Amino acid sequence: MEQVSKGxxxxxxxxxxxxxxxxxxxxxFSQFYKNTPEISKWYAxxxxxxxxxxxxxxxxxxxHIWLNDPQFEEEKPKKxxxxxKEADTGGDFRYLIFQEAYGVTYTVNEYVNNFYxxxxxxxxxxxEKWTNPLMEVVEVEE
Length: 142
Description:
alpha+beta; two-stranded parallel sheet; 6 strands; 33% helix; elongated
């Protein structure tokens, strides 16, 4: 199954109800995509395709919407952590962690065997502010 954005999954669910009046020829000739920005964006993200590839994408949508055959699933939310570039001899990475003492927040780099304790950032740009030559940004599932 292909992972897609939360917005596209919502549009696909609405499409099951809102676009039932459309017939198959409307879908094949892209009339269906006019009012669905996330589906249009997904469609466009595949770039210039051959007729066969376009038909395959359209068939995925038709199967998902009209035949109730799941072709898509919502992608899991992503977060970013700052992790050491190299693991220690035990295979553990050092992660950026924010701690607080006496009302003052400070950072520590701590060896842990997973990233759950690490400070998580919503964007790569936020996380990159905390990197140094020994640390890098890693994308993780929330």
